[in-house]
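for the recovery benchmark. C-alpha cells below, seq after
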C-alpha cells in the first residue's frame, strides 16, 4: 500500500510560483533515515512528514526535513501543512470555511488559523511559537560581501547592519542597499564559511527596503547551501526571526505592524509573506506569519 503525499505551492495564490512543499500524509513506520532519504528524493527546500497526534487536542505531529537535515520549525511547511490538513478535513467547500489546525513540531505547539475558499487559494496564519532573539555576532562586512559576491559598499542601508537572530534555527540577516545589489548576490562557496560561520546553520537572508510593489515593505533572498538549499523561494522561519531585525533597527512603536515581504522574485518563484508584529511598551508581544497556498499535485510513495 502506498503512502499518500501532496505537493503545494506556498506563499502564493498561483500554481508554479511560491515555494513548493511536499507533505507525506501517511508517515507511520518511517524511521529517521527513510524520512531524510525521501526528502532528498523530493529535493524541495522542505518535506513534511505527518504523524498521528499524541494529544487528541492536536491535529498532527509533524517532522520537517530539508534535503540534508531535519529542522525544528519552518514557516512555509507550517502554512502548507495546515492548509492541506484543512482540505483533508473539509474537502471542497461551497463558501469560506474557517479551520484551526494545531501542529506539534520539535520547537513546540504551533496553532494555525486557516480559511478555505471555493476555487481559490487558501490562507493560513500561525502564531510563531517563540519570539525572535539575538543569535550572536556576525562577521565583518568585507567577509560577508565576499561570501555573497558583492562589494562591501553594497552591504547595509540606513542604520541596518548585518545581524543574527533566531526562532528555532538562526539566520544571518544581511541588508543590502537596493534591488540591484540583491539581484547580484550569489553564494561564493569558497568564502561562505568565512563570511557566515562553520556551524550547521550558516544561512544568509539578504534583504533590502526597495520592493516591486508599494504594498510590500522589504524584498529578500535566502541562501542555505549547507542545508542543500541553493536558494529558497520563501522562508517563513526567517521572516519570523526577521521581526527581531525590524524591531531592533526600525524601533517599532506600540501596536500591530503589518509587514509584507517579497521573496523568490529573482529566481522566478515570486512569493509574498505576511509578517505581523505586536509591540507593547516597546517590546515584542507576539509574531504571526501568514500566506496563501495552492494544492498542485497528489500521489503515492511506495516506500
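predicted aa per position
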Amino acid at each position: 500500500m502506498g503512502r499518500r503525499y501532496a505537493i503545494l505551492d506556498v506563499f502564493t495564490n498561483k500554481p508554479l510560483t511560491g515555494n513548493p512543499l511536499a507533505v507525506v500524509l501517511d508517515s507511520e513506520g518511517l524511521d529517521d533515515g527513510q524520512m531524510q532519504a525521501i526528502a532528498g528524493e523530493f529535493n524541495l527546500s522542505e518535506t513534511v512528514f505527518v504523524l498521528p497526534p499524541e494529544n487528541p487536542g492536536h491535529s498532527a505531529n509533524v517532522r520537517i526535513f530539508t534535503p540534508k537535515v531535519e529542522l525544528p520549525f519552518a514557516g512555509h511547511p507550517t502554512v502548507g501543512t495546515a492548509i492541506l490538513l484543512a482540505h483533508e478535513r473539509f474537502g471542497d467547500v461551497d463558501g469560506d470555511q474557517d479551520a484551526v489546525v494545531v501542529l506539534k513540531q520539535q520547537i513546540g505547539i504551533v496553532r494555525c488559523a486557516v480559511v478555505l475558499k471555493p476555487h481559490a487559494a487558501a490562507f493560513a496564519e500561525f502564531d510563531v511559537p517563540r519570539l525572535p532573539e539575538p543569535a550572536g555576532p556576525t562577521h565583518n562586512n568585507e567577509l560577508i560581501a565576499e561570501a555573497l559576491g558583492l562589494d562591501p559598499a553594497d552591504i547595509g542601508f540606513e542604520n541596518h547592519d548585518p545581524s543574527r537572530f533566531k526562532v528555532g534555527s538562526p539566520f544571518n540577516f544581511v541588508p543590502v542597499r537596493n534591488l540591484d545589489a540583491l539581484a547580484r548576490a550569489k553564494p561564493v562557496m569558497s568564502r561562505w564559511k568565512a563570511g557566515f560561520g562553520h556551524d550547521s546553520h550558516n544561512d544568509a537572508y539578504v534583504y533590502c527596503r526597495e520592493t516591486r510593489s508599494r504594498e510590500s515593505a522589504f524584498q529578500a533572498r535566502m541562501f542555505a547551501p549547507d542545508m542543500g538549499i541553493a536558494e529558497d523561494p520563501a522562508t517563513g522561519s526567517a521572516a519570523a526571526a526577521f521581526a527581531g531585525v525590524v524591531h531592533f533597527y526600525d524601533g517599532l512603536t506600540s501596536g500591530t505592524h503589518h509587514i509584507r515581504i517579497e521573496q523568490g522574485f529573482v529566481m522566478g518563484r515570486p512569493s509574498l509573506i505576511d509578517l505581523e508584529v505586536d509591540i507593547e511598551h516597546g517590546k515584542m508581544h507576539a509574531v504571526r506569519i501568514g500566506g496563501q497556498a495552492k494544492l498542485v499535485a497528489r500521489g503515492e510513495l511506495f516506500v
